[in-house]
Design brief:
The protein has 278 residues and is of the alpha+beta class. The protein contains seven helices and 16 strands. The chain is globular, with a radius of gyration of 18 Å. 38% of the residues are buried.
Length: 278
């Protein structure tokens, strides 16, 4: 197994691993160490095998079913993300941490690329431990005691989601209590495995700051959104057929770029259950 770092802040490609053949405990221990060290890891040229993808995800923890996005009819634990040629991408576009609107947000996500456009559609990852570390001591003191309110409602009720609710899209939504729920998470969370602190707000699901007015909170949140996605805190992944990405939602944000409208793309996503941010 070979690990090739992708940027100075995080991200690495792992070579010499065939996920479909299964992983020994020793090999997965090395993969898991890289996952914690780099925040997001990538594997290329993996055969398409949903059973193997789910089995691989289970190494990280129990599988999490999305409360709003419907899974595949015969595999509810897998979301098929199919963008037809000629349409804009409307799933995962914009900076976010998967399912931060849940009481126990997803630990990580495992995404497989099956049908890939000839160009475009890269995913950009931003490493929030690095973003926190680069804040001033004064800002760290301010943020360490703050709590943010997260919710799914605004993101999943945007105009671009209409066809998904009506069953006219390749991706379908279902009504859930998560659409109206609001949850509280610390603005700075401590990673339960590494002990490192990371920013934990995102423009897709963070609604406001607890005990602050909108006028007070908005400038601070806007600063954090810009700071968290600074180029020097990111890496960018060019998808190829058979590639797999695994990212740590506890310390990484991501953004799926929508720059391949003329082309079809098909991806498969599995998420892993997490715990309450602390």
């Amino acid at each position: 197994m070979e690990i090739r770092p992708l940027s100075g802040s995080g991200g690495a490609e792992i070579l010499g691993v065939d996920i479909a053949r299964g992983l020994s405990n020793a090999i997965f221990a090395d993969i898991h160490r890289a996952f914690l060290d780099y925040g997001v890891i990538f594997f290329r040229d993996q055969p398409f095998d949903l059973d193997a993808q789910v089995a691989f995800a289970r190494h990280f923890g129990d599988i999490d079913q999305h409360p709003i996005v419907k899974g595949m009819e015969d595999r509810p634990d897998v979301i098929k993300i199919h963008k037809r040629a000629g349409e804009s991408a409307t799933f995962g576009v914009g900076w976010h941490s998967d399912n931060s609107y849940m009481v126990e947000p997803s630990l990580g996500s495992v995404l497989y690329g099956d049908v890939i456009p000839p160009f475009g559609g890269d995913t950009v990852f931003a490493f929030q431990t690095r973003a926190y570390e680069r804040l001033s001591s004064g800002m760290k003191k301010l943020l360490d005691g703050l709590v943010a309110i997260h919710g799914a409602g605004p993101a999943f009720s945007a105009p671009t989601t209409k066809e998904k609710w009506e069953g006219k899209s390749t991706l379908a939504y279902q009504m859930s209590d998560a659409m109206s729920a609001e949850v509280e998470h610390p603005v700075v969370r401590t990673h339960p495995e590494t002990g490192r602190k990371a920013l934990y707000v995102n423009p897709m699901f963070t609604l406001r700051l607890k005990d602050m007015t909108e006028a007070e909170a908005r400038p601070l949140l806007e600063f954090l959104y810009v700071h968290a996605a600074r180029e020097e805190f990111t890496c960018r992944f060019r998808w190829t057929k058979g590639a797999i990405a695994v990212w740590d939602n506890r310390a990484v944000m991501h953004n799926a770029l929508d720059d391949y409208e003329a082309y079809e793309r098909v991806m498969y996503r599995v998420t892993v259950k997490g715990d309450k941010p602390r």
